[in-house]
Task: structure prediction
Amino acid sequence: METILLGIGMVFVLEGLVLALAPSRIDEILEMLRQMSVETRRLLGLLAITSGAILLLLAGWLGG
Result:
């Protein structure tokens, strides 16, 4: 449970940094996402999930 809370906390910090340091870029990024096809957005999501899972497995392997 501690690891899950740590991970969620890290996501919040990174998301907060984006909003705090570059709020005007958010509109540009959202516009870029609107212009992408649904298939491209789905592929990006699947790539993010896969990358995150690999990083979690790597962290577990290195830490344990």
Observations:
- The first helix runs from residue 2 to 21.
- The mean pLDDT is 91.
- The CA atoms of residues 31 and 50 lie 25 Å apart.
